[in-house]
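hiii so my PI (J.) wants the whole complex modelled not just the main chain, which honestly fair. so below is everything: four entries, each one labled with what it is. i double checked the lines twice but i was tired so who knows lol
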Amino acid sequence: MIDCLYFAWVRERIGAPRERVETSAATVMELVEELRGRDPRYGAAFADLSALRVAVDQELSGFDAPLAGVREVAFFPPMTGG
Amino acid sequence: MIDCLYFAWVRERIGAPRERVETSAATVMELVEELRGRDPRYGAAFADLSALRVAVDQELSGFDAPLAGVREVAFFPPMTGG
Amino acid sequence: MSVRVQSARFDAGAELNAFSAGLENAGAVVSFTGVVRDREAGGMVAMEIEHYPGMTERAIAGIVEEARRRWDLADALVIHRHGRLVPAEPIMMVATAARHRLAAFEAAEFLMDYLKSRAPFWKKEIGPRDAAWVAAKDGDEAALGRWAAREQ
Amino acid sequence: MSVRVQSARFDAGAELNAFSAGLENAGAVVSFTGVVRDREAGGMVAMEIEHYPGMTERAIAGIVEEARRRWDLADALVIHRHGRLVPAEPIMMVATAARHRLAAFEAAEFLMDYLKSRAPFWKKEIGPRDAAWVAAKDGDEAALGRWAAREQ
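here's the output for the full assembly
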């Protein structure tokens, strides 16, 4: 089980700020593919991966990051703080 | 007649913050030479010209600046504001 | 070092004074304040700032830590708000203190550049009839390059 | 734009707030505050700042004018004190406001670099038994070079 978190327009497209996902995906990319297969909302949110950033257990990571032992994966657009 | 102003250690060496000087010097350098000839205090103040800055009518200038029409010449060490 | 992530409005002047009062022998204090401004198109009603609780604090702490590693800082402060803000309100603030002004300036710019692109905040501009997420600027990511180049 | 040369102490936080309150649509505000700090050798009792009335205001106005020419500033503020100051008191302050943070930061650094070497102030450090004029640093003059290089 992995907690998936969504922020900004990713959250709006998916329609929820977070959810627990039952998955055996080995990497973030596999998790993305799995979610895309579940519902068109994910397809809309993950349509352009170059416009997305991912954090694994609250650290910025790449889509190739392994998920073994991971509790939390977050998807969001490039940050606009400051 | 030119008003000569002195600041910081130049003022301390000369012993006055300002004085009116009767001179026919054509340039700042000529004025410096004239003052040097008047009293050893000027010799002490103007010993190392590379350690001095000069302002002519309140604008930073070089020692070769002409004095025609000038009202005020100031001598001081490099500035240390800020 | 102090990091605060809050929805409450803050008083930038009071924060600057409190920050400066605690310093020993730091002659140079630099502050940056980001203020909600109108959109290019005008007519902004509010700005909503979303963030990622937990990661936000962790990311900012990491950025501050990196700044302390690079510059000899007497102190540093980061305050960043989230939630609903109206135009002219302060969004965030950074303050740095050092013995020399160059370190204080550089560290403040470094903190800003990294907060902009590496701290998980997202801004949404709310107009009278529309709302849009602020897009990250290419320049913001590029700004990080000037610090990376220094590391060599 | 506001330039003040004064012997009276000022409140940097209150100045920052007053400066920010007057802004329209400038999202970025940068401030620098210079604070009296102890000498390397320690034991400083006071700092005396001498200046050149008339030229001081003229020189600062020229520096601010040049900053406005180079950057798109919404506003700028310079306050510089003279007379006798004690450790921990503010010596001077610069604030800049712009639409974008890079302009605000660069203009503030430019103002500081030029105030340091081109505004007629001289600092004297007063110890319990001695006093000495602060020497200009080679680096201060060199700092101006980075702005000259940009002009081409």
